[in-house]
Amino acid sequence: MSKFKSVLRFLLPDFLIQYYRSNKKRKINRQIEEQKLNGKGISKIDLHNCFSKIGILEGDSVLVHSSLSKMGYVKNGANDVVDALLELIGPNGNLMMPSSPNGLLQLDFVNKNEVFDVLNTPSVLGSITENFRKREGVIRSLNYLEPVCAYGKDAKYLTEGHFGEVTPYTKNSPFHRLTEFNGKILYLGVDLDNAGTSLHVLEVSVDFHFPVYAPGEFSVKIKDSEGKTHTVRTKAHNPVFSKKRKCNELIPMFLAYGVCKRVYIGNAESYIFDAKKMLDLMIDKYETDKITMYTPKN
């Protein structure tokens, strides 16, 4: 499937790609309606059991990328997904979700020069992330391009280093700090092509020789939880080079080295990654073979 999606992305006109995606979405929606009518939905207990079975444990720190619709009919929607995860990891764990306000290319988004309001700007990454963002006690990191929401005993530490970083993926970012906790990354109904954020941590962990960022830095504005507006600098990905990404082509390597497992949650093909093993393997393969999401076959 990943190779087919790569063909769609690079060879077909945009309107045909959109037509394919619209048809796929309609098919998923029909399946959800059929499950709802037939009483075959997924309950919170089902989700709790599934998450436990794939290796999410009490006390874990977990970053979750998600697509609710891919799972099929979930009886109470995003509420059940978030509740099941929080109940499973318990008071000693940490739940994290990306909450980017950006549905565009990074370069286009920074050029719009809109203020990012950490309390009020919604996540564009699906209903599960938006449900989580709005919950009491959730902390959202002050990052213009890739803010992360976190809840748990270490939520403050996981998010506080994100402010003022020139890229969202540095060693102070939630994506990197997750590795310090031997955390896990759950791709729930999505894959690396859809949600390859953690792959970018490699780019700031080595002397990365690919021109992944557009020239210069951009001045952007962030409004914090107290209503104060800050002006910070950020880099933005080079859209020309971004088209070279082949993220899903790294999945066989991650599977072969035991970095991740392919699992199913409801109807959703999903992946559970060990965050530290993922980064360590990426660094090793970059230094020995120059393997990256841009050059997965080197």
Provide structural commentary.
This protein has helices at 2-11, 14-37, 44-53, 77-89, 106-112, 127-133, 155-160, 174-180, 239-242, 251-256, 275-289, and strands at residues 61-66, 94-98, 116-117, 139-140, 148-152, 184-188, 218-223, 229-234, 260-265, 268-274. The two termini are 21 Å apart. Mean pLDDT is 91; it is low at 1-8. With 298 residues, it is of the alpha/beta class. Strand 9 (260-265) and strand 10 form a beta hairpin. A seven-stranded mixed sheet has the order 4-5-2-1-6-10-9, sandwiched between helices. The chain is globular and about 55 Å long. It is 37% helix and 17% strand. The longest helix has 24 residues, at 14-37.
Q: Which SSEs are present, and which pair or pack?
A:
Elements: H1 2-11, H2 14-37, H3 44-53, E1 61-66, H4 77-89, E2 94-98, H5 106-112, E3 116-117, H6 127-133, E4 139-140, E5 148-152, H7 155-160, H8 174-180, E6 184-188, E7 218-223, E8 229-234, H9 239-242, H10 251-256, E9 260-265, E10 268-274, H11 275-289
Strand arrangement within the widest β-sheet reads 4-5-2-1-6-10-9
Number of helices: 11
Assembly annotation? single chain
Instruction: Give the uncertain stretches in residue-range form.
Output: 1-8
Summarize the helix and strand pattern as letters: HHHEHEHEHEEHHEEEHHEEH
Number of strands: 10
Strand content: 15-25%
**C-alpha termini separation:** 21 Å
Tell me the overall shape.
globular
The biggest sheet amounts to: 7 strands, mixed
Q: Over the alpha carbons, how many angstroms does the gyration radius reach?
A: 19 Å
Overall pLDDT score: 91
Helix content: 25-40%
